[in-house]
Amino acid sequence: MRPIETLLSKRWILKSREKELYYQMKDEVGKIKGFLTEKLGYPVIVNPNLIKIEKIPASLENWMGIQEFTDKIEYVFLCFILMYLEDKEAGEQFVLSELTEYIQSQEKDEPIDWTIYRFRRHLIKVMKFCVKEGIMEINDGNEDSFMKSDAGEVLYENTGASRYFMRNLTRDISEYEKPEDFLKEEWIGMNEDRGIIRRQRVYRRLLMSMGMYQTLNTEEDFYYVKNYRNMIQGDLEALLDCELQVHRTSAFLIMGEDSSLGRSFPEENTLSDIVLLWCHLYREKIERGEIPVPADEDVKIPKEMFTALLEECKKIYGSGWIKTYREMTMGEYCKKIKDYMLQMELIEELHDSIRIHSVVGKIAGVYPETFKVGGANE
Description:
By secondary structure, the chain is an alpha+beta fold. The protein contains 14 helices and twelve strands. The protein has a three-stranded antiparallel β-sheet, covered by helices on one side. Strands 4-6-5 form a three-stranded antiparallel β-sheet. α3 crosses α4.
């Protein structure tokens, strides 16, 4: 794996967990630091304990957030944990009961009662996430004991990494009213050089988004891609196994088969396989003229047509899927696939229609000719 792929695909590299990789990346990071800071505007943190690239997006995306978390209170608990660890030294130990008392004393909006299973379950999910990420280590005990009873105890050790989990912000975020305010924070003090802002925004979008599309909001950025296509492609190909493909109203960074730049599509799961089959059906509809493509390539179809395409996909190919998806009700299946496509930025849900992003026209999958359409193989 190339150094930049390693650094961009990981939250951080902790010396305590990946000592060999830490020293390897410490030697390599200097070679790519210029690209990271100048083209992406990403701060590089290198200290005796970890290496981290502050990966800041160009825009808000559906896939962002901690995938393990399913409830707002889990993010609240995470913030309280980070606050609690702020005053502790690396290597300092603490017991779970100290942390739960701290959370109870800090939470004002919703009283926390640890005798209620729901609160314990959410906290343990967050604690397991923190251990997985290397924010803390378990020295004695097991979280499952607290899951069973609020009297359960666990001994943890602070690794010191928690201080680098959040970005350092220059303003009081209590003034922020919406997520976009955090993106504006990034460009404060740089109004005098819009060229730098635009360049960094373009490189970030190409690296972190499923695709870049020409819209009223991105027109300036898209013209930058068209005008400096060769330079951008040269910069990226020097560091990554990739190809920059620029079309009339869209641009995509296509990764090579051996690349590992975090999450990309298609993934190695049945969801991706189903979506690829759906894309094939969608392209067939376009080729037959059943779905018109406007001049700006901004395809919108009624929600009913989108659902009908999903149902048709299952009826034709469902016998080749794993049992989980074969036995789903049509409603459960349609919701599952639609949610996944929304998360992967393949589609966008509008009031009464679905916008199909043009990246869908670049990806498709079919089963071998030996597959019996509408039935199982023999």
